[in-house]
Amino acid sequence: MSKYMVNLKINNMPVSVEEGTTILEAARQLNFKIPTLCNHPDLTVAGNCRVCVVEVKGARQLSAACATPVSEGMEVFTNSEQVRTSRKHIIELLLSEHNSDCTKCQKNGSCELQSLAFEYRVGDHVLMSLLKPEDLIPDISSPSIVKDNSKCIHCQRCVRTCAELQGVSALGVAFKGNHQSISTFLNKPLNEVVCTNCGQCINRCPTGALTERNNIEDVWNALYDPNKFVVVQTAPAVRIALGEELGLEPGHRVTGKMVASLRKIGFNKVLDTDFSADLTIMEEGFELLNRLRKVLVEKDETVKLPMMTSCSPGWIKFIEHIFPNLNDHLSTCKSPQQMFGAVAKTYYADKVNVKAQDMVVVSIMPCTAKKFECDRPEMRSSGFKDVDYVLTTRELGLMIRQAGIDFASLEPEGYDSILGESTGAAVIFGATGGVMEAALRTAYEVVTGREVPFTNLDIKPVRGMEGVKEASIKIKNVKPEFAHLEGVELNVAVAHGLANARKVMESVQNGTSNYHFIEIMACPGGCLGGGGQPIPTSKEIRDKRAEAIYEEDLNMPIRKSHENPDVVAIYEEFLGEPNGHKSHDLLHTHYKVRNRY
Amino acid sequence: MTMETKKLKKVDIIFENIPGLSYSILEKTIKRNPDDIILDLIDSGLKGRGGAGFPTGLKWKFTKNEDNPVKYVICNADEGEPGTFKDREIIERVPDKILTGIAICGYVIGAKEGYIYLRGEYNFLLKNLVKRVEEFNAFLKKIHLDFKVMIRSGSGAYVCGEESALFESMEGYRGEPRNKPPYPTVAGYNWKPTVINNVETLVFATMICHMGPEKFKKLGTTDSRGSKVFSVSGDTPIPGIYELELGMPLHRFVEEFGDGDTKAVQIGGASGFCVTRKKFNDTIIGFEGIPTGGSMMIFNSSRSMYNILHDYLEFFCEESCGQCTPCRIGCQQLLKGIEAVKRGERPPSYLEELKKLTATMKIASKCGLGQSVGNPFNSIVDNFREEIIY
Ligand SMILES: Cc1cc2nc3c(=O)[nH]c(=O)nc-3n(C[C@H](O)[C@H](O)[C@H](O)COP(=O)(O)O)c2cc1C
Ligand code: SF4
Ligand code: SF4
Ligand code: SF4
Ligand code: SF4
Ligand code: FES
Q1: Could you tell me the residue range of the domain that residue B91 belongs to?
Q2: pTM of structure
């Protein structure tokens, strides 16, 4: 059914838009900005903040522009006296229950409520304060997320994020009226509920009510400590988003400038998580081949297929809570961040002649769940905490500013060696489908001796922003040792966003799917849309970041993990072979069963 | 302007209880053409008795015109408005008339399922109601009407009487009102076309099918046809349920029900309007004057209007669903505001600020709850300013 066009006037200007368009969208086409708070492009419409109300001629009430579809002949006014009075009232009301200590707030300077208050100059304190004393104590129980109810405007963006995008519903609305609040199950601390630490709610919270646990001071302290050798690793998705924190448009690759600024900040070595992403591909690729052999040839029923990726700690906590019976399907590989930490404090510490206890490993991650992950008790294979501190892309942006570095004028620099070598395969870890693509590039070649049969090595079916992607590759003309895989059709699936992960898990659970290998990323778009990435986020922004990632891949001299020279070297000098004894000690892990509540 | 000045007239349409009457009305009515039934309802001038007063015939017509194989009829028995207790009585005394109204509506609009959304606090009515519903459903089977009535219980939130919050509640979600449009006639329960009517509205629909629109029309005024069941409470020697012709002036009502010392009447419950003695003569009870879902609270001179307003505001502070800014915070500001004025922490002129706030709440709140808090606030503050301040 084709949509017909609706004619209306906004502030006396005619406009013609598709049926079903909201007043808000129609106004945007005319470049009229209507303020919003509860509205977010990734989420369903709520229409609860009411700050977007506009006057529709003939209507008794104002209409919420975000929630009202246009109709033929409609006449809308976005700045009438009624509208402005109401809008100001609404902002004043929100501020009357708000803890407006902007100067001390994490969101100072990037807060939607603050900029509205600024635009409307709401300064006179007419209304009574409704701030609740009990809200003044933030929930800091989670290693990833700080929840401060005194900053909450009840817009429910977090609630919709957690339910609609993540299918977790760790946050919900409790009570009604003056007691209504955004709460966890029984108002338990965040670290005691199903929250996966993914941080997607942070990315969509308009205020400082949800923010990441800030570790900047910890890192500065380590840098100032003369007895510490501080190395930093940077995740693939940071380099294509950091620019947004420092004034650039989305989609800029700033790898070289990022490395330069880290060096200026004072890290002893600037290394790349890409190295351990390649290492992950080796371990995970060989694990998959082993599982296929054990299931197909040895009929070993203790070995589970499909195998599922394990590099996204939000996803790991999700499956541990919601589908713990499928834990055995998870690859035992640690995430690249943790593989890096384990190798850094063993192999690398030896190389650079530093004692493990004197080394501090800092990760720059697009992710808030990594803060939780590095605290997991399993993540101490070096005998120490393998990764000491995790900073998000946002926190790094702040550190660069604190250090007074003029990012724009920096000359690009390269990573230190060793553990600074990267491939295109590792870079694309940052986008949904990237791990799958990287794994297939390597595994196919190991099995057949030939490159994957896709132009330019671009495995297009697993790319893109569709929630669940599927592909199959027929394995032909294998090397003799993989004869059991001759003619096998390898079925893979890729999902991003935990709501999509849930769908795939349900299909695995009821046996309605026949996958061999599944990639899951907790965040929409993969790590490029991670909970630690620059705010705001939207489909357009994530698309631009994805483009930048695939550009970076295409520009890499080496694009397959097994060809990364640092990876080749570490197997020769230290690990032996993929999935070997040493690998198992350092690079593999196990999972927990967690309750839902 | 000529005003129709009615006398107070007691009527007995709703509670008239002739055994077997409802079933025979149903059997007779479903032999008629649905469009004719709608025409009769429109002709009768029946408007919804739940408060909003939407013409019932039109509501049915819009829903009938929707092209959708699944539609629903819902009887709103949430009766949460303070001072309203007439639906309870109707459910207790003439449940078959309600069920008949639901089934006729289902027949007219093409629905196969009807629901009664019963207020949580009315669960004591369930036992009898379930029995009557079972008998009724058996009768529907017997007369080969493909329709079934079911009961759903609320859990005690006033806002769940608001139609879209009621749908959310029935679907198992938090009772939060939805954005409108779409309206229930297009997308209601389960997002399917739905007629939602008050208990009393459905009984009147049944009775109009029985007695014809002419007889119904003879009662009331041009804007307010027919009669209505009132819940009379407060400072009255004869509290209770009364069916009265619509369009009477308030002074006749006070003469009948007051205790001789009536200072004000709150018409339409907490969300309605307060009328003072000096306006009794020229206040009509009906859609042309002050409409009411049935609640009539009478106050004599011993009552503090500050306390009454305070109670109402406390009620709204608690019963707001809390999702939208003007209502959630506005209600609290009004309450704190009059407290502050009373204590002298804010000047009397602060009441004007608060009145401006109610104007915003009226036009910017998401649903009828927040939109109507200004009704009691302004009518009490304007009429009893001294009582609020001192
Ligand atoms: C806060 C609020 C509470 C309401 N509670 C009730 C109620 O308890 N019973 C009722 O019939 N209508 C109630 N309504 C009105 C309904 O939304 C709806 O208009 C009515 O059920 C329609 O029926 P009618 O056309 O027969 O009046 C309420 C409305 C609001 C805004
Ligand atoms: S949330 Fe926004 S408005 Fe509130 S204190 Fe923080 S920066 Fe200021
Ligand atoms: S971090 Fe993720 S799982 Fe936890 S509350 Fe936020 S959106 Fe939900
Ligand atoms: S925590 Fe943030 S996103 Fe959630 S309701 Fe409060 S202000 Fe909105
Ligand atoms: S007006 Fe009040 S009850 Fe209605 S949606 Fe808004 S907060 Fe909820
Ligand atoms: S942005 Fe429209 S109601 Fe919040």
Answers
A1: 11-217
A2: 0.96
